[in-house]
């Protein structure tokens, strides 16, 4: 990083909660030329600062909140990257994990003059961290402990004169539930990693930030041009938007069904004085024109009454359309309570409980102490959520340790394995499977590369970065605009495949469910590395997935995968060519893998549950949505995995990166440390 910073603001805050001290250090202490920011910077900080013996809830665990070089500019998405050792492992104690949240928290951190915050130690009593430009101090939060997320954020917002951007934990984090999140505004949360529990273990209730600075940009005119280019690519021009036609047509497609498009009855009950309005919402400088809706106070005071964004809005919308607005509204109420309590997406875990409940007589009053006959009702749901957040009942406390623990405890190991598998993920790793608590599991959505991507993620088998945007394009959810199978659709699919891999064959193989294709390993490698770059710059991955592959507004519907790179250039002045992009992705993925390797991860952690092969058998797939007869066998999968190790430069027998791979990536010091300090027997 040069002396004059473009994109960065140049300072990190190192907060020792045990000593109650705050130190300002140069961001480049951790070599931003090599690790850029966000996920990259957070990973090198973990590698450097976090002792390998640190348990997730130990004071020694290091918790980072990082911005990226694009954060606080005009087109980034405002995400904050959070990393630490996660408690969400079972029966192991968890491993290094990451998550991120949107809102305006990260840009505000840059405006206050900081690229990130590193928390170490444990405060002697509940505290919050207060930043107001140059002032950065630890403050007493004993009066805030016990408040839900909306209450504590409202209080800190009020104390800041309605200026601060806040991230906080609710009761679930305070009680260290595995389902806990960190929340910023009403709906932006760290959905993975159980990081609310890590904050809780450090007695850290919230972070309140306000700043008056700005981020210097190397090429301001270039940035303005790029903003216009991107808007033309992925959303309506702002002056063309109306309530019926929001900036992003994808968002508009679910608007009609949301319970927020209110009935008069609802308005009368909730808003007799007309103080509320329904508004589009989005993170700071969303490149996609915003992806959410919320009900907020017209005068801008206080937290809104609820907000739905992205993946939250889709099921609510679908449910409202299918079952009526009342059902959708109940769903939204659950989500809002979820966010107040600081739990991870309750809808996915209720969906997870559903097959167990449907199987009958597995969860009974006798073995759990609660009456399951009301399962699915609003009262039952609310009570269960409270008991998981506060661990106020035996069952609540057991669920708070993760589904895998709960199911094994209450219904025995073999059945637990079946249902655990049905709830969460595909990977039979005690470290990576997250104890079955959070993330995403999309039954039937794993095409060949998707399956391999999830299984080899450096996070866990529910890593949202592994959802395959290409799935939508290949199998067609772009509706009338680009009918699957049409000539135009075929041209776009072939074009994307050629652009990324030099040939249409790669997408062709994927579409044909060719588990033995040579295309799968390089595809998987590209996905991991591309997302690593996105997350380090930081550019919203939700927006990027959509705008890379497809546009509603360009001729031929072509998207642009290079937008993050182009932005990086105009913001920092650094021209990141294709080779550097690949080299960064490689280095970054290798660093994360090294952190996991020192925690004991190897090939065994990349293997699948045996039940996956049953689910992907020819018979099951033939009768599925995909109607393919090409089933997956263990041999297929292990062959794909071997091929992936080969392209990654990892040892096939152990799954560990080779010394020569670290050397080729320009980071031999990481291999040296693995061998000399941690005693890892790295293959040559
Ligand atoms: S697409 Fe959604 S999550 Fe991403 S930046 Fe925009 S509003 Fe935030």
TrEMBL record:
| Database matches in Gene3D superfamilies | Aldehyde Ferredoxin Oxidoreductase Protein, subunit A, domain 2 (1.10.569.10), Aldehyde Ferredoxin Oxidoreductase Protein, subunit A, domain 3 (1.10.599.10), Aldehyde ferredoxin oxidoreductase, N-terminal domain (3.60.9.10)
- Pfam family of the protein (one): AFOR_N
> Which keywords has UniProt assigned to this entry?
4Fe-4S, Iron, Iron-sulfur, Metal-binding, Oxidoreductase
Cofactors needed by this protein, per the record, are:
[4Fe-4S] cluster; tungstopterin
Which GO molecular-function terms appear in the entry? 4 iron, 4 sulfur cluster binding; electron transfer activity; metal ion binding; oxidoreductase activity, acting on the aldehyde or oxo group of donors, iron-sulfur protein as acceptor
What InterPro entries does the record point to? Ald_Fedxn_OxRdtase_dom2 (IPR013984), Ald_Fedxn_OxRdtase_dom3 (IPR013985), Ald_Fedxn_OxRdtase_N (IPR013983), Ald_Fedxn_OxRdtase_N_sf (IPR036503), OxRdtase_Ald_Fedxn_C (IPR001203), Tungsten_al_ferr_oxy-like_C (IPR036021), W-dependent_AOR (IPR051919)
Q: Which residues form the Aldehyde ferredoxin oxidoreductase N-terminal domain?
A: 8-213
Return the similarity comment. Belongs to the AOR/FOR family.
Q: What is this protein called?
A: Aldehyde ferredoxin oxidoreductase N-terminal domain-containing protein
Q: Which organism is it from?
A: Adlercreutzia equolifaciens
> What lineage does UniProt assign to this protein's organism?
Bacteria, Bacillati, Actinomycetota, Coriobacteriia, Eggerthellales
């Amino acid at each position: 990083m040069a002396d004059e910073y473009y994109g960065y603001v140049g300072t990190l805050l190192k907060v020792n909660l045990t000593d109650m001290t705050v130190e300002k250090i140069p961001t480049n202490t951790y070599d931003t030329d090599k690790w850029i920011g966000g996920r990259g910077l957070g990973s090198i900080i973990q590698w450097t600062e976090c002792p390998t013996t640190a348990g997730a809830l130990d004071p020694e665990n290091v918790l980072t909140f990082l911005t990226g070089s694009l954060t606080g500019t005009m087109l980034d998405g405002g995400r904050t990257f959070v990393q630490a050792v996660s408690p969400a492992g079972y029966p192991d104690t968890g491993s290094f994990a990451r998550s991120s949240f949107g809102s305006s928290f990260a840009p505000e951190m840059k405006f206050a003059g900081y690229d990130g915050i590193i928390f170490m130690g444990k405060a002697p009593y509940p505290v919050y961290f207060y930043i107001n430009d140059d002032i950065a101090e630890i403050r007493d939060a004993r009066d805030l402990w016990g408040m839900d997320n909306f209450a504590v954020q409202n209080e800190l917002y009020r104390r800041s004169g309605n200026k601060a951007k806040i991230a906080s934990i609710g009761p679930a984090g305070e009680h260290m539930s595995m389902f806990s999140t960190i929340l910023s505004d009403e709906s932006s949360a760290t959905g993975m990693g159980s990081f609310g529990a890590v904050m809780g273990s450090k007695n850290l209730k919230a972070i309140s930030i306000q700043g008056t600075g700005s981020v210097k940009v190397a090429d301001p005119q270039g940035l303005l041009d790029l903003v216009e280019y991107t808007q033309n690519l992925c959303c309506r021009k702002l002056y063309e938007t109306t309530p019926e036609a929001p900036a992003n047509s994808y968002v508009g497609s679910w608007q009609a069904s949301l319970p927020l498009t209110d009935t008069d009855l609802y308005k009368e009950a909730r808003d007799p004085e007309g103080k509320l309005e329904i508004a589009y919402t989005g993170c700071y400088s969303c490149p996609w024109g915003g992806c959410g809706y919320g009900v907020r106070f017209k005068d801008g005071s206080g937290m809104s009454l609820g907000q739905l964004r992205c993946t939250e809005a889709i099921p609510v919308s679908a449910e409202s359309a299918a079952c009526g607005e009342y059902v959708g509204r109940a769903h939204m109420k659950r989500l809002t309570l979820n966010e107040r309590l600081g739990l991870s997406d309750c809808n996915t875990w209720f969906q997870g409980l559903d097959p167990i409940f449907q199987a009958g007589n597995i969860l009974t009053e006798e073995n759990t102490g609660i009456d399951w006959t009301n399962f699915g009702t609003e009262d039952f749901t609310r009570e269960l959520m409270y008991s998981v957040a506060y661990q106020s009942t035996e069952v609540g406390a057991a669920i708070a340790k993760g589904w895998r623990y709960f199911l094994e405890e209450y219904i025995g190991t073999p059945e637990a394995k079946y249902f655990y598998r049905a709830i969460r993920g595909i990977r039979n790793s005690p470290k990576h499977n997250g104890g079955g608590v959070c993330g995403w599991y999309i039954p039937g959505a794993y095409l060949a590369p998707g399956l391999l991507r999830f299984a080899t993620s450096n996070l866990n088998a529910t890593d949202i970065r592994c959802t395959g945007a290409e799935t939508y394009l290949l199998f067609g959810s772009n509706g009338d605009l680009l009918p699957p199978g049409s000539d135009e659709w075929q041209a776009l699919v072939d074009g994307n495949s050629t652009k990324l891999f030099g040939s249409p064959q790669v997408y062709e193989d994927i579409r044909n469910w060719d588990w033995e294709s040579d295309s799968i390993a390089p595809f998987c490698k590209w996905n991991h590395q591309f997302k690593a770059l996105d997350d380090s710059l930081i550019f919203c991955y939700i927006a990027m997935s959509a705008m890379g592959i497809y546009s509603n507004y360009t001729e031929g519907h072509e998207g642009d995968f290079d937008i993050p790179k182009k932005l990086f250039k105009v913001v920092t002045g650094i021209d990141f060519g294709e080779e550097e992009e690949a080299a960064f992705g490689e280095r970054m993925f290798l660093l994360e893998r090294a952190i996991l390797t020192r925690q004991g991860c190897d090939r065994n952690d990349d293997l699948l549950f045996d039940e996956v092969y049953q689910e992907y058998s020819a018979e099951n797939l033939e009768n599925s949505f995909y109607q393919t007869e090409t089933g997956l066998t263990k041999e297929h999968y292990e062959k794909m995995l071997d091929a992936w190790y080969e392209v990654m430069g990892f040892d096939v027998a152990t799954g560990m990166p080779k010394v020569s791979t670290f050397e080729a990536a320009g980071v031999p010091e990481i291999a040296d440390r693995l061998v000399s300090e941690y005693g890892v027997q790295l293959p040559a």
